[in-house]
Amino acid sequence: MNVPFEQRFPRPSVMGVVNVTPDSFSDGGVNFEPADAVGSARRMVEEGATIVDVGGESTRPGSESVSLEEELRRVVPVLEGLRGVPVSIDTAKSQVAARALELGAELVNDVTALRADPGLAGVVADHGAYLCLMHMRGKPRTMQQDPRYGDVVADVARFLDERLRFAVSQGIPEESICLDPGIGFGKTVEHNFELLRRLDELTALGRPILVGISRKSSLGKIMGDPGAKTGTTAASVGAAVLAYERGASVFRVHDVREHVEALTAAQAVVAG
Ligand code: HH2
Questions:
Q1: Which of 56, 115, 157, 190 would bridge 74 by S-S if both were Cys, CB 3.0 to 4.6 A apart?
Q2: How far apart are CA 68 and CA 63, in angstroms?
Q3: Burial, 47: exposed, middle or buried (Cβ in 10 Å; 0-12, 13-18, 19+)?
Q4: What is the pTM of this model?
């Protein structure tokens, strides 16, 4: 039995992003070679990341899914090179998650919140892994086509609560689970910032909240470029600090050192 999520990942914890993909929205190709990915991940841990999130499939708006064989081909050499390093696997596929957990990963980050692969919940439960359940409206290929909600925060909260109950019903201990509003996954700029502004309504669900806004296009769009595909590091850090103040626990980021420094300062202000 693991220690509870909040003990393993105390507020604030930083999760470094390692995309082993040719096409991720902000760092596609940078870590496509296993040696580059392993080097980046190790540097992130030296810079203060609590864990690194290794993913072999881009979920950016408009992206197509990759095959099981291709996803394994991308991530397995990286996971082999990261033995002894704290790793999360960013996948919706049970076979990728199982291989990663065998190779030492401790957390499964599923952007579909256990809706894509009926075998994934069992794999997480059997391995006693930590789990991140994320909200997404629709699928990456079409999710940014006119997203609408009644009340985005209430809708996301209801969804996450339902997925949390489902995960627990599948034998995954509630103490092992964190929740994520899924910034940019079927949401407008306004939706994304409203979710962060009213984050207290998500922390009220009783589980730690993970936020991934790092470099996302909403941060570029509010700078006046409606066609922005990415945001800057400074904008990412600013949003992360305020999300921390509103109760977020884990920050999924590309620029680890900057976030660790800013969140350490924020913690000194907030917690003394
Ligand atoms: N965002 C991305 C991917 N995985 N997982 C969680 N839990 N939360 C997120 O916000 C999140 C995520 C998208 O960012 P990135 O991995 O940098 O891009 P891409 O999907 O293009 O690889």
A1: 56
A2: 16
A3: middle
A4: 0.97
Is 25 a pocket residue for ligand 1 (Cβ < 6 Å)?
yes
Q: Is 89 exposed, middle or buried (0-12, 13-18, 19+ CB in 10 A)?
A: buried
Question: Is residue 15 helix, strand or coil?
Answer: strand
Amino acid at 160: L
Q: Is 170 helix (H, G, I), strand (E, B) or coil?
A: coil
Coarse DSSP helix, strand, coil percentages of the chain, rounded to the nearest 5 percent: 45, 15, 45
CA end-to-end distance (rounded Å), the chain: 32
Catalytic residue among 137, 163, 216, 221: 216
Summarised one tens digit per residue, pLDDT across range 183-235 is 999 999 999 999 999 999 999 999 999 999 999 999 999 999 999 999 999 99
Query: How remote is the CA of residue 212 from the centroid of ligand 1, in Å?
Result: 7
- Catalytic hit among 74, 246, 252, 257: 252
Q: Tell me the CB-side half-sphere exposure of residue 137, using CA atoms within 13 A.
A: 22
CA distance 199 to 76: 35
**CA separation for the pair 115, 113 (Å, rounded):** 6
Residue 135 to residues 132, 160, 182, 212, 264, Cα–Cα distance (Å)? 10, 7, 5, 11, 27
Residue 229 annotated to the active site = no
Q: Which atom of ligand 1 is nearest to the CA of 109?
A: 7
